[in-house]
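During the no-cost extension, the postdoctoral fellow (Dr. R.K.) reprocessed legacy sequence entries with the updated structure-token encoder. One reprocessed record is reproduced below for audit purposes.
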Amino acid sequence: MIVVRDLVKAFNGRPILDGISVTVKKRDVLVIMGGSGCGKSTLLRQIIGLSKPDSGEIWIRGQDITRMDERVFTEMRKKFGMLFQSGALFNSMTVGENVSLPILEHTKLAEEVVNIMVKIKLELVGLTGFEHMMPSEISGGMKKRVGLARAIAMDPELLFCDEPSAGLDPVMTAVIDTLMVDLSRKLGMTLVVVTHDMASAFRIATKMVMLFQGKLVASGTPEYIKSLDNPIVKQFINGEADGPIPLRLSSDDYLKNLLG
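Re-encoded structure tokens follow.
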């Protein structure tokens, strides 16, 4: 489904992605993980075409999107679904209106058909009967599920998720994880998920890649990643303070800055 080859991206001369290569097969659940600033969100933006790489190739469904005409790529994007970190719902719209937005934008289906599609998508995420509620009237976990319903509204082949567990408690995180995996199986979707939540990552992934300082340091199945003796990988997946991954600011540095 996706082949990334030797991808390079820099901002103001600082390399963010340095020769990244990743392959995603159909129905894979790929988890992109790494610490803050490692380049995982930048990689996601490159794959969905929000930003152009400095060099390298990104092949989706057999076509190199880095050289694709924008009009053609716009048509391809209709096969993408996107679950944003915060849910990104429109507060002035009802739950049903949020879910129906991509359907109304990209099709000319009758209102009755759209309403049926919205009900089906909300049922898939466990929110039957919530279509007339406003985002302000539902919980954070429910907002994330509405965002997921909107992301699958057009029955996408590829679903991209940016920190889907951000801001959720462990129980709701497990609910969202289960939903994503279940939907990928039922609808035959391929998932690309950016996360730093290791419990979530190992629960959903069929394949994992880890980035560190713009480079790919590990790639493989969850079992393979767990078995690696790489100190960077071990520190990150175990959540340890000591190791090769540098801390942005130590407590001593903080006190020195505070006291001048």
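Residues 89-155 form one domain. The longest strand covers residues 14-24. The remaining legacy entries will be reprocessed before the final report is submitted.
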